[in-house]
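Lab notebook, bench 4. Still working through the backlog of constructs that have no structural model yet. Next entry is a single chain of 135 residues. Request: give me the structure tokens for it.
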Amino acid sequence: MSGGNQSAGGAQGPPSFPVSVVLTRRTVRRGPVTVPSWELGGVVAGSPREADGGPARGRPIHRDGDREELLWTGLAVRLDPASAESYWFNLVGLHPSLQVICQPDPSMGLVPVAVTADHDLGSAHMEADDMVFAA
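Model written out:
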């Protein structure tokens, strides 16, 4: 499959497709303090950096007052054959989507660590208190 990556030893690995993620951070007032509020701007096919398994890289792409958009590159959607049933339920559901799994980061606030079509994986990360967005 042309979208697949090669693993060590030349064996064909699960198909993976590079993607970029846009996260929007707003500063909102809650009582006497201001806190960040996050939302998913979108998932875009392709990435200027190959999905090599390294950490995602984020950079600001737009700022307007208390709102900032960050573009995260270096991510990939990997299709694991063991998750085929979860993908199928996702695709036949009312709102097929990708799950963007994010974790807190001291310097960036929130960092996307994975993008998946596996709703079971997304649910597991929500239960572990990671932030998960649907796209």
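Notes after review: The chain has one domain: 4-134. The longest strand covers residues 12-30. Flag for follow-up if needed.
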